[in-house]
Write a structure and sequence with these properties.
Blueprint lengths: L15 H22 L7 H10 L3 E2 H8 L3 H13 L3 E5 L7 E5 L1 H4 L2 H16 L4 H21 L8
Antiparallel strand pairs: 1-3, 2-3
Helix pairs in contact: 1-6
Length: 159
C-alpha cells in the first residue's frame, strides 16, 4: 500500500516537483548523515574520500571540481579529515602553492564501510520500486539536474 502524497504548503503548490525533490533530498541526506556519523564522518566527506579511492593523489582543485562544492567547504572538510588522520595534504613538487591530497591507511580503510553505506542507502531508497522505475527515476533526476545547471546559470548558488 502506498502512502498518500502530502500536500505542499500553499506557497509551493505551483512548484510541486521542486517541493518533492526538496523533501526527498532532505530525508535522504538525513539518513546518509546518520550513517556517516557511525564512521565519524560529516556529509560530503565521503564524496571526497570516494574520489580519492578512485584516484589517490589528486590536487585540492581537482577534488573541488569533482565534487561540485565550494572552495571553503572542501578546504574545511579536508582540514578536518587531515586532523582525523584520514588523509595528508602536501605541496606539489611542481608548484608549492598547489596542495596534493593523499589517503592514509586509515582513510583507505573506509573504502568498504562507505561502499556498504551506499549499498544500504540504496536498498532503503528503492524499497519496492521495480528496476524500470529505478531507471526512469534516475534518468528523470539527471534531466532535472541538467536543466537546473544549464537554465539556472547566473542564479545565486548556496553551495
Amino acid at each position: 500500500m502506498t502512502e498518500p502524497v502530502s500536500m505542499p504548503p500553499s506557497t509551493a503548490r505551483d512548484g510541486r516537483l521542486s517541493y518533492a525533490v526538496f523533501q526527498l533530498a532532505r530525508v535522504h541526506r538525513g539518513h546518509a548523515a546518520a550513517m556517516l556519523r557511525t564512521m565519524n564522518l560529516h556529509p560530503g566527506q565521503e564524496l571526497l574520500l570516494m574520489q580519492l579511492f578512485d584516484r589517490d593523489g589528486q590536487t585540492q582543485s581537482e577534488l573541488l571540481d569533482s565534487v561540485g562544492l565550494d572552495h571553503s567547504t572542501v578546504s574545511k572538510s579536508l582540514r578536518r579529515m587531515q586532523d582525523a588522520g584520514l588523509l595528508t595534504r602536501e605541496p606539489a613538487e611542481h608548484d608549492r602553492r598547489v596542495m596534493v591530497v593523499r589517503l592514509t591507511d586509515a582513510g583507505r580503510a573506509l573504502r568498504e564501510p562507505i561502499a556498504d553505506m551506499w549499498r544500504t542507502l540504496e536498498e532503503l531508497s528503492v524499497g519496492d520500486l521495480t528496476p524500470e522505475q529505478i531507471e526512469s527515476f534516475t534518468r528523470t533526476a539527471s534531466a532535472i539536474e541538467r536543466s537546473i545547471r544549464t537554465r539556472g546559470r547566473g542564479a545565486p548558488s548556496n553551495e
